[in-house]
């Protein structure tokens, strides 16, 4: 259906952009483009050249990201998370005090949304633009949720209902990651990091480290104590807490919580080293 049209477009783009594709390379690009268009038909044929161009640049990256067996799979997802963080820095967006470094954090929501929607990527935009759009939507949701909390809402209401879009579920009570259950003083993570003893560049460095550690914890979905890890990772890694007392409050055996702390330390070791050296 698309073969002749796409074949002509590939030949024209190859000459115009100097891609230096040989006959086999043009045929492969044509085949990939036809497969994408058959799966996701474009309403306007004028978009075909842009779609082919985007496939040329980003197809290999998307394919590797969607294939857990690909040797560069993990590296690509690290680069996607870095792209989200870099975009937030470019937009001069900072969570600041009161940030929740758990499933509610905009960068992690954006990361999860990219992960869920990438297999349906239509190549109508460059991959970077696609990631930036999802990251922007995550910020919008975060601000709306924050405003909802100010007006007495849960702060976790759904904005989208699509199965491919991750949106935090409502919570009866919000626990901050630096808060141990039963404390009188609910101390948020941002308050800990924004110490008057830290210089501005040190504060930025701490924020970067906390984002990386939160991402590592968020990826521990197979851990038997995943909900506890999500909620208490900062208390377990970066604070001097009574593990036995905390385990009792959570209805766990002390050794279960000690083992969880060890797993968290192994997972976040490179960032923890920088954290305590900073």
Description of the structure:
- This protein has 278 residues and is mainly alpha-helical.
- The chain has 3 domains: 1-65, no CATH class; 69-170, no CATH class; 181-278, no CATH class.
- 62% of the residues lie in helices and 0% in strands.
- It has helices at residues 3-17, 23-39, 48-65, 73-90, 106-117, 127-150, 189-193, 200-218, 226-238, 243-250, 254-277.
- Helix 2 packs across helix 3 and helix 5 (106-117) crosses helix 6 (127-150).
- The radius of gyration is 23 Å and the shape is elongated.
- Mean pLDDT is 77; it is low at 96-102, 154-163 and 165-196.
Indicate the topology.
Elements: H1 3-17, H2 23-39, H3 48-65, H4 73-90, H5 106-117, H6 127-150, H7 189-193, H8 200-218, H9 226-238, H10 243-250, H11 254-277
Keywords, separated by commas or semicolons:
278 residues, single chain, 62% helix
Oligomer type: single chain
Number of helices in the DSSP assignment: 11
The residue-averaged pLDDT reads 77
Q: Report Rg.
A: 23 Å
Distance between the termini: 59 Å
Beta content comes to under 5%
Low-confidence stretches: 96-102, 154-163, 165-196
Cα shape: elongated
User: What is the H/E string?
Assistant: HHHHHHHHHHH
Largest sheet: none
Q: SS-based structural class?
A: mainly alpha
Number of domains: 3
Helicity level:
55-70%
- What's the total count of β strands? 0
Short description:
With 278 residues, this protein is mainly alpha-helical.
